[in-house]
Write a structure and sequence with these properties.
By secondary structure, this protein is mostly helical. It contains 6 helices and no strands. The chain is elongated and about 75 Å long. The chain starts with a helix and ends with a helix.
Length: 108
């Protein structure tokens, strides 16, 4: 018997869900592998309660129903871009510098 036959019979696995996430099919990240110390579903299996394949299939269907970033949905743009935090930090540093310079000039 083909080892994959049993998995196909049981439905979608946590590995398949993780592969969908890594390929960027869930629309919330770019396609790239994310190394994990404890892969998705490991905690459930270690507790003796592996996730129900029907539930995993439902989650995968819901997660992959969003458009991928290449289809017009860009998570970073929706959240203000990855450089927004850096810009705010630099603006705060400049404001503090101006305030310190103003205090020095005012006291001198």
């Amino acid at each position: 018997m083909d080892p994959g036959t049993d998995k196909r019979r049981r439905g979608v696995t946590m590995d398949a869900l993780r592969d969908s996430i890594d390929r960027g099919e869930t629309g919330d990240k770019v396609p790239a592998s994310d190394p994990a110390a404890a892969p998705l579903g490991t905690d459930d299996e270690a507790a003796g309660a592996p996730p129900d394949p029907k539930l995993v299939a439902e989650v995968q269907a819901r997660e992959t129903s969003r458009p991928a970033p290449s289809e017009g949905w860009a998570p970073y743009e929706a959240e203000g871009g990855p450089g927004t935090g850096v810009a705010i930090f630099l603006l705060a540093v400049v404001a503090i510098g101006v305030a310190i310079a103003g205090l020095i000039l005012a006291s001198g």
